[in-house]
Amino acid sequence: MKLLKRWAIVLLTMFTATMAFAQGSADYGSGLKFNLDEEGDKYVRFIFWSQIWARSTQNNPGTLIGDEPADRSFDMGARRIRTIAYAQLSPRYLIFTHLGINNQTFINGGANGTGGTGAFGAGKKPQIFFHDVWNEYAIIPAKNPHTGEANKYTLYAGAGLHYWLGVSRITSASTLNFLMLDAPIFNWPTLEMSDQFIRQYGMYAKGALGRLHYQGHINKPFATNIQPVADGPAVDNNGNPKASFGGYADFQLFDQEANVLPFRVGSYLGSKKVLNIGAGFFSNQDGTRSLNTAGVLQKHDINIYSMDVFADLPIGPKSKNMAVTAYSVAYNYDFGPNYLRTTGIMNTGVPNPAFEGLRAQEGAGNARFSLGTGKVWYTQAGLLLPKEFCSKVRVQPVAAYTLKDLEALDEVGHYYDLGANFFLDAHHAKITVQHSSRPLYYNNKVFNRAGEWIVQFQVYL
Predict the structure, then answer these.
(1) Which pLDDT tens digit goes with each residue over 213-270?
(2) For the chain, which domains are there?
(3) Distance CA 25, CA 430 (A)
(4) What's the Cα-to-Cα distance from 362 to each of 204, 322, 359, 371, 411, rounded to whole Å?
(5) SS3 399
(6) How far apart (Å, rounded) are the C-alpha atoms in residues 120 and 221?
(7) Which of 111, 151, 379, 427 shows the greatest Cβ crowding within 10 Å of its Cβ?
């Protein structure tokens, strides 16, 4: 009993990761965790997951898929296939690694140089790469190594290719327990520009001051070299990149969240009572460039600020295990004049040069204006229905709304998402169905809308 009690304390303090326990299955426990001593103070842990998408997409006007015009398309592919391994052989230090692939479809997302037909045909054999590799040192650990008591104040420092980011809670979102089907993407403001799939090399500090949890970083951005055009918008071109700075802090009014790993939970499914208020920032001097009408080069700082609130609250009788989850965030982006970025997740379409109709300004396939200099407001909410609603699975209807007021566009964009999570075994095995509606722009104004149905099959162990 003494050993079991000690092991439980360890799990609930230092070694509880945000991706396990609170939002997971009771059968899962600590998962694929291998203790290297009787107390569980030394261990290695592995996490595996995949998210497979099946989609029916209303493509933007002027789309080709496989050299054929396509107003609508169906496809299946891998949104994420990932593996995490991390180890702690001393309370004073930890090593974390995270690798995998993303966004493989039947026609793209494959290894460099693949295309056409055959063993190295289009979309095949994507290269596995590291998402995270970082080392961490405990300056003030969660538990006093001499007395065994929990410390009210903690401080950890680390370095590497890391995910301890600034700006907002959802910028450090866990991909395992989203409330919606996926992230809205603009929550990662440097995605695949000056980062490696969100991460940059740098140093970070994180910890807690009572109920105030914090994280901050100094990073070296990856180099960008998009060439600006005269009298055009600011573009990603940072020359010899200057250091980027970022941070996020939230005050946690009720239950305290674990912060061993950076991944923030999207939905606790009623297992916690959480209400957090947070704010963050990201700054990178001379991160973009533009040319004025005279062709003179101008450099611009990137400055981003956010404020957000997250709530995950059990409601109703305890026997029903109902919960409401909500998150709202406001961003103020400044990338330089008229900066505008387009994103199409697992986009299978390319522009049709022969198209003669009204062509979507965003591009082909499912492309949308993701972010730019301006303001974005995003809100999502979900309701975990009572257990008796369905005896086989738990059901959680969800919805999200985004308002984008971007400097380069003449009209505000409204984006809608509506769906439901079907939990076979909490987040460890779930199926999500979601419909998304996006505006389409022509000459900087909305002229139509398009939709996309997605069914996601997720398992993580």
Answers:
(1) 999 999 999 999 999 999 999 999 999 999 999 999 999 999 999 999 999 999 999 9
(2) 2-460 (2.40.160.10)
(3) 11
(4) 36, 40, 9, 12, 14
(5) strand
(6) 32
(7) 427
